[in-house]
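Journal club prep — side note

Before the paper discussion, L.F. wants everyone to see what a predicted structure for a comparable chain looks like in token form. Sequence:
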Amino acid sequence: MVQTVAGSRALKRTVSALLKAPDFEKSLHELRRFPARQVVNPLFSFLLSSDEEVRWRAVTAMGAVLQDLASTDMGAARVIMRRLMWSLNDESGGIGWGAPEVMGEAMARHESLANEYASILTSYCYEEGNFLEYEALQRGLLWALIRLVRVRPALVRIDPGRLNIFLRSRDPVVRGLAAWATGLLGHHSARSQLESLRGDKTRIKLYLDRSLQETTVEELALTGLACLDQ
């Protein structure tokens, strides 16, 4: 038991160093060489990191690990997906930080996971479904929806108007991501809401293409409008 604890601590230190390394692409390759079931728990812990870049890298890494696991042992991958879903359940006693993002990343990477769990992800938008109340979780949900719809648009089905509550959010990240997602989903009925976000110069930071980038709510609304015009 002592060796097991010591081993888990050493693994966590190794994972931490890889997530913080300058060359994340190389780190990601190294992380994927570990047995998936062995590396999942330390990666889960880094979803709570106070370092935003480390937290997002953990999301990417977990999505990649789940992709690999689903390709060899779908049952084991389902166990981890259910663990993520459980963490978002009020009965879990937790908050579920990072869970929607990991689900979206994994489904964008693996078609079978997307086929099984896309409807679960979208259910978190529905007030009569599994609606996520916390704005921080709503950020993760909308990011996950965007990540998934950009890769597998046919699997993301959300009724028009369902994202309007997010477009009216006090949280600028939620507003901006909702505007982009609305455009990607082709919800033309929400055009006026997107137009209303023109002039919203609030600066926000997003994780895109494996790096943190600055943008504004207005820029994301314009992106959403451009999607509607395509």
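L.F.'s comment for the group: Residues 2-157 form one domain. Keep this in mind when we get to the figures.
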